[in-house]
Amino acid sequence: MKGFINYAQTYHLGDISLNQSFKNLTTLKIGGAIKCVFYPYTKDTLREAYRYIIDHQLPYFVIGGGSNLLASDEEYNGIVISMKKIRNFHWIDEETIYLDAGVYASAIARYISSNGVEGAEFMSVIPGMIGGLIYMNAGAYHREIKDCLISADYLDANANVVTIEDCKFSYRDSIFRHIPSIILGGTFRFKKTNNQDEIKRKLELYYQIKRDHQPIDKRSAGSTFHNPKDIKAWEVIDKLGFRGYQIGGAKVSEKHANFLINEGNATFDDMMELIHKIKTEAKSKLNIDLNCEWIIRK
To answer: What digits encode the pLDDT tens for the residues 184-195?
Structure first.
């Protein structure tokens, strides 16, 4: 670990933080201490650092906005690579834009929309960064990342830069969940329009729906379970009577049953026990498989 820190500092590859925890890096505010957090300055310095990590077989974990992550309370003795500084973007033409992995989705969606371009409005209510949205094929209001992403760039297991058009997208899934990779960014295509009022209406409507139906004032990691076929996950949880149910500091939101929230002092074990209980009863009582949408780092 000291070798990596010295290497990153000597060659000015990025900032190093030794006093961080997953509590500070995730929206759930759960998780243990981290030995080293690395904030690469650019995609080139990320690639250089990644080569070192691979060559020295160091454990690592990549994090974006931390808005879909539940981390263990145990100390992580590896390197957490934060994409926070990899946040450039540029227009390719009036409908096509390249977004780095560390660009915040909600902010860039509003910016794209302000340029008279439609199709990014759904991203305005999705927390997190572009890399995470690509990773899980995030979506809202009947649109997903697969509907607007032309191609994605990533580092493969050998630190080579690869551009891919077919990301094997499916519901909340992509190829990146199944191969060693660090997403660098992606090229997106939207649609130029003269109807700015309609764009504004959608932005306002989507935010109002989110505000009225989701616990945005609570510590959460977004929707907890994938929607099963023919029924919403929150409906399953309601049928089981779990709305408002609590284990330790982990609670099923009373506002939206598919949001599990940290009431202030939840532990990793609290949240995992609550997830397990809901999954077990969904299967035993309703014969429904509920699959967790979150990334869980045990």
So the answer is: 999 999 999 999
Q: What confidence tens digit (pLDDT) does each residue in 108-123 have?
A: 999 999 999 999 999 9
SS3 87: coil
pLDDT at 264: 85
Choose the catalytic residue: 124, 281, 293, 297.
293
Exposure string for 165-196, b = 16+ CB within 10 A, e = fewer: eebebeebebbbeeeebbbbbbbbbbeeeeee
CB neighbours of 255 closer than 8 A, spacing ≥ 6?
213, 214, 215
- Given the residues 223, 253, 281, 297, the one annotated as active site: 223
pLDDT (average), residues 98-107: 98
Domain layout of the chain by residue ranges = 2-82, 89-212, 215-297
Does the domain at 89-212 match CATH 3.30.465.10? Answer given as yes
Which band of pLDDT confidence, cut at 50, 70 and 90, is reported for residue 1? Answer: confident
Q: Can you tell me the distance from the alpha carbon of 100 to that of 118, in angstroms, rounded to the nearest whole number?
A: 20
Among residues 172, 174, 253, 281, which one is catalytic?
Answer: 172
Contact (CB, 8 A) for 11 and 47: no
Given the structure tokens 């008279």, which residue do they identify? 116
pTM: 0.94
219 is known as an active-site residue = no
Top-tier CATH class for 2-82: alpha beta
Q: Is 174 a catalytic residue?
A: no
